[in-house]
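FORM 7B: Structural annotation worksheet

SECTION A. Query
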Amino acid sequence: MPVAMPTTSKVKDIYLPQPATILEAELLTEKEKFFKFQLETDGTFTFMPGQFMEVSIPGIGGAPISISSSPTRSKDNTIEMEVRHDANMTAALHTLQVRYRVGLRGPYGPWFPVDRDMLRRDVVFVCGGLGLVPVRSAIHYVLDHRADYENITILYGTKRPEDRLFVDELTEWKARSDITFLETVDVADRKWSGNVGVITELFSRLQMTRAKTIAIVCGPPIMYRFVLLGLHKLKMKDRYIYVSLERHMRCAVGKCGRCQINGVYACQEGA
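SECTION B. Predicted structure
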């Protein structure tokens, strides 16, 4: 991933959360819940696709959560997130409804190069399961600036049909004539009529110019190994492959070392 770059948000203290109100809260699957927050901040809150926030609940704690919305669709200092019911903090967050307030700190981390390296190139998004959440921000950004990019392909894979996120948007992407959208599930049910198999099986249907293609990859760690092998077989070079890194985090600014992988801090060099 590219090195961390400064944001333009006006935050007085990088450790001080800003209050935010829940505007929308909707259960997407049995484990994932969608939230729309409005930050109470002076000036305009800015971010880029791939960045994340530290979400906190007083008396319980905080957790890093990816921003799922695009700055092209953000109005009145609002951002969208999708939260999986997992540890104590996210479990508590799932109990909150509209009008509740939380703390938001950030944005942190670098972003997908939608405003730099991806311009005037073919773009392939490879998303596995929950990996669609941070990449959704980049997808919306690219679609809202469609003329700035060449061929766009979105690949999405989940374990089961009921695990699919943002189902209405998936239908919209499939219907668009200016992009290619392909999805698959590991295990189908009786209602599923689409592809069945791992996401790399969709690679044979890619239509891209290798010299001008950038891949954005996000999903479970086990997926990375096989996706990278598949992209290398397609002769893609590492410098054109962006992989989102994720680790347990505390400070989100490279101070505590909790997310360190050898000499790399995921909070600063992951997305």
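SECTION C. Observations
Helices lie at 88-94, 132-144, 167-175, 221-233, 266-269. The chain has a mean pLDDT of 89.

SECTION D. Sign-off
Analyst initials: ____
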